[in-house]
């Protein structure tokens, strides 16, 4: 199976490894990708999940050559797997970073937008060819894209099918950061390692609070924030981190 899974410390990396088809996703690879996310989610040692691709593409999305031969049941299975991925990544108690190393189009863009953070190589390209092919987006894209870049830009991307480069994606808020192509693996590795070193309860609750807050009204958001913050305060890891911080400040004051 061309989905590679490896862990380094508290970071799990999931790599799409079908460069000959720009990391396109058929049913088997979607199932394997979903299994990898669930595997990382069940591993208490993992705090950050990095998703990336090999070659010159993050992912070209659903495997169009296979879709042309699918019956309706197989097509429904593909759509369902993209929906399941969106649910799983949304719910997983880990921070998900998408390292976009090339083309992220169609379902590849859907996958990138499921992540909590997106770091892109300068040569990355983002696009939605769905309408041109007669399809509409899945994988939560119509939810995610509007919240990231606004309705006007989201509809523009979806209806014109015009791709955008990494600089434009960063400018409109689609991604967090652009780095030189050669620097992408090291930059994402350093970021993932740094975030993975933070107390887990705080990371988990920060993700929960933002994702819930984007859909809830202010009153509900305030209740959730208070609950999550108290849960974080009670965490032994957070208490240890607080004690270390106070001790470090005291040592600085003595110099």
Question: Helices, strands, pairings?
Answer:
Elements: E1 3-8, E2 11-16, H1 27-42, E3 48-53, E4 57-59, H2 64-67, H3 72-91, E5 95-100, E6 103-105, H4 107-114, E7 117-121, E8 125-127, H5 130-133, H6 141-149, H7 151-160, E9 164-165, H8 166-171, E10 177-179, H9 184-196, H10 200-213, H11 218-234, H12 236-254
Parallel strand pairs: 2-3, 3-5, 4-6, 5-7, 6-8, 7-10
Antiparallel strand pairs: 1-2, 8-9
Helix pairs in contact: 1-3, 3-4, 6-7, 10-11
Description:
By secondary structure, this protein is an alpha/beta fold. It contains twelve helices and ten strands. It has helices at 27-42, 64-67, 72-91, 107-114, 130-133, 141-149, 151-160, 166-171, 184-196, 200-213, 218-234, 236-254, and strands at residues 3-8, 11-16, 48-53, 57-59, 95-100, 103-105, 117-121, 125-127, 164-165, 177-179. Strands 1-2-3-5-7-10 form a six-stranded mixed beta sheet, sandwiched between helices. The mean pLDDT is 91.
